[in-house]
Write a structure and sequence with these properties.
two-stranded antiparallel sheet, alpha/beta, single chain, 325 residues, TIM Barrel, 13% strand
Length: 325
Amino acid sequence: MNYRRLGSSGLRVSELSLGAWVTYGGQVGEDVATKCMAAAYEAGVNFYDNAEAYARGNAEVVMGNVIKKLRWPRESIIVSSKVFWGGHGPNEEGLSRKHIMEACASSRKRLQLDYLDLFFCHRPDPNTPIEETVRAMDDLVHQGKILYWGTSMWKKDDILEAYNIAREYGLVPPQMEQPVYNLLQRDRVELEYLPLYSKIGLGLTTWSPLASGLLTGKYRKGVPPGSRASLENMKWLKESMLTPKNVSLVEQFQPIARDLGCSLAQLAIAWCCRNPNVSTVITGATTPEQVKENMQAIEIVPKLDADITQRIDDILKGKPQLESE
C-alpha cells in the first residue's frame, strides 16, 4: 500500500480506503464487517470512512465495535464521520452550531473514540451561514474532538468561501472534500475543483469508484438479487446510473481490463487512483474476498500509461475540458 498526503496537510492516508456507506449495519452484520476491516487493515489501509447518516448511526456502532474488538492502535488508523442528517427534529439535521456539536459527540460515542481524525460537512446547508459552520468546526478542532474538517459534495465556490472566511478570522480552514469520482462522473474532480488543489491545498477522499457497482459489470444482464440496485432505498441508482448507455460503456471497458490482466472493478479503482489530486479512493465491500480484490487495484495503477488512458477517453468520447480549451 502507498500513502499520500491529505492535500497540503501532513496527514498521510492510504491510497485505497474502506467506507461503511450502505453496507455496515445494512447489507452486512458485525461479523462480516470485522472480516472486511481486518482484510483491509492487513492490506495497509489506514482510513475508515463513516457518517452519522449511515444506517441511522448503526454503521458507526458496528465500526466502533470492530475497532475495539481488533484492538488496533489508535495511531495506526484514521477514522472519519460526517454531519448533516442526524434525525427528523428541526435541529437534528443541517450544519448549525448546535447540530454540529451534538453530532460530533454522538458519532464519537458510537465509534467509541475520543476524537475523529476527519469530520465532513456531508452536504451544503443553505439555511445556515457558512461562517457559523466554519466557527463550529474551528471550535471542535481546538477542543481536540476532531483533527481536520472538510466538506462533501460542495460546490467549488462554497468551499472557497469557507476557506476565505477561515483565513480572514484566523480559523482552521477546510482541508478536504469528499466528492463522487469514477469513470462516468469526473467533471467535478477534474474541472470544477482544479483551481483548489494548488490555491488552498485541497485534499480529496473520493467515493463511488465503481459507480455503486455498475463498473464491476454485474448489471450487464439486469439487477441481480442482493445488489445495491435491488435495495428499496437505492431506486435512484437504477434510474440515474443503470441506463442502456452506461451499461454499454462498461462493456467497452472489458477488453482493456482483459489486456491488463485485471477485473473491471480493479480497472475502475486504479483509474481513480491514478489521479495525483486524489488523496484516497474510498472502496466498499460486503465480503473480505471483495476487499482483497479491490486492494489489488494498486498493482494496476502503474500500468495505466498514456495509451491505456487514451483508449479509455476514446470510449468516453474524450476527457472533460475547460471551456477555454
